[in-house]
Amino acid sequence: MKLGNELPKIITGTVPGPKGQAIIDRRSEACPVAINCNYPAVIDTAEGAMFKDPDGNIFLDWVGGVGVTNLGYSNPEVLEAIREQSNRFCHAMFNITTHEGYVKLAEKLNEIVPVKGNVKNTMFINSGSEANENAVKIAKAFTKRPNIIVFSGAFHGRTNYTMAMTGKKGYAIGQGPFPDGVYRADFPYLYRRPDGMTESEAIDYYTAKLENTFIEATPAEYCAAIVFEPIQGEGGFVPAPIEWVKAVRKICDEKGIMIIADEVQTGFSRSGRMFATEYWAEAGCRPDIITMAKSIACGIPFSAVTARKEIFDGVPVGTIGGTYGGNPLGCAAALKVIEIMEREDFPAKARKIGSTISKRYKEWENKYDVVGDVRGIGSMLGIEFVTDKKSKTPNPAIVSAIIKDAAKMGLIIESCGTYGNAIRLLAPLCMTDKQTEAGLQIFEKAIVNNLSVK
C-alpha cells in the first residue's frame, strides 16, 4: 500500500525510535535550541497527509508544515513541474531578466485573487513575513501615510517589522526596539466578548474600539492601512465576523485607509474557498491588498502580494523586490498547485473535511467540560480548551498534554491561541476519510486520557 493511504502506526512501542532519537540528538548538538521542536518525530518519507520516520513509524500530520501542505506531501504533478523547470534553469532575478513563469503566475493570481479593483498587479517574494512587510510598504507608498493598525491575537511574521505587528510578544523576547507607527486594536474574539453581550452588540463594541484607535493612537489621516487575518492563525483560529469586516471596510473607505488581508495561512483552499476573502467579496467588502504564502507552492519557499494596479503604481521604483522573489521553481510549483486545486475542487475537499471534523468537535463540546469553543471556516478549525465552561479559564496544560499523548499514538497536532489553549487543524486536504476518522479517534482518546489536567 502507498504511504499516502496508510493509517497511523507506531511499531517501536515509543517514539522516537532509536534511529529517530539519534537524529534528534544530532539536531540538539548542531542546530539552535531557539528553533524549538517538542515533537518526537523525524520525517524520512512523506506522501499525502502521512509521513514515515526512519524507524518505520507512520504519523498522520494535522499540522502540514503549519499550513504549507494543503495539497499534501510530494504531490507527483507538482514534483514533475519542479523537475521540468529545474532542467531548464533554477534562478533568474526578475530585476535582471524576465522569465515567463513569473508573468504567467502573476496573470493567474490577478485573475483569481479577490482584491478591490479590476486591473491588478502581483509581486513575489519568499515568505509570509516578507509578503506582509512588503504589503505595508506598498500601502504607505500609495497613501503617503506613516502608520498602520493591527490587532490583538495577530501573527504576521518574525522580521523586525512584523514582530512589531504580531500580537503575541513571546515571539519577540529579547528583540527590539521595534519600528514606530504600529498601533493595536482589539480583535473581535466573540467567544471571549464581554459578558452579557450579544454577538451583534459585540461587533458594535469592537468596531467602536477600533474607531477609538484614531483618537488614542494614530489619527486616521496618518493611518496607511489596517492589517488583519480573515481567520487568525496563531491567535487561535478566530474568524473575523463578516459584519465587523463590513464595518471596517466602511471606515476605511471613509478615511482613505487600505485594508490588507493576511491570507498567508488562510489561502489556497483551506477556508473552503481558494481565498477566505472570497467570503468578504460576496458581502461586498473586498480588501485592497492580499498577502499569501504557505501552500502557494507546496513547500517551495514562496509568497506573493496582490493589489490593484493603481496601488502598485504609487510605489517608487527600487523599493520592493529582491534576489529570490519569483524564483522559477516556485513559480512552476505554484502554477501547478493552482491548476490542481481548481481541477479537483480542493475548496470542496476542505468543506467536506471541515464538516466531518467540526461535527465531531461539537459532540466533544457537549460531552466534555474542558472543551470551551469550536470555531472556524472550511477545514481551518480551532478547538479551545478551558478548565471548565462556566469560568472559561484558559487551559494550556491540557493542550500540551493532549499534543504529547497524540504524538505517541501517531497523530501530530499543534497548539495556538493567545493563551496556548487551542488546537488548530491544518491537515492536508487530500486526507482520506479513513485517515480523518483515525485522527479523530486518537484525538478524543488523548482528551479522555488527560481530562484531569488543569
UniProtKB/TrEMBL annotation:
EC number: 2.6.1.19, 2.6.1.22
CDD domains registered for this protein in UniProt: OAT_like (cd00610)
Cofactor(s) recorded in Swiss-Prot or TrEMBL: pyridoxal 5'-phosphate
Family: Belongs to the class-III pyridoxal-phosphate-dependent aminotransferase family.
Signal peptide as annotated in the record: none
Pathway per the UniProt entry: Amino-acid degradation; 4-aminobutanoate degradation
Organism: Clostridium fermenticellae
Catalysis performed (reactions): 4-aminobutanoate + 2-oxoglutarate = succinate semialdehyde + L-glutamate; (S)-3-amino-2-methylpropanoate + 2-oxoglutarate = 2-methyl-3-oxopropanoate + L-glutamate
Alphabetic keyword roster: Aminotransferase, Pyridoxal phosphate, Transferase
A Gene Ontology molecular function term of the record: (S)-3-amino-2-methylpropionate transaminase activity
Enzyme class: transferase
Name of the protein: (S)-3-amino-2-methylpropionate transaminase
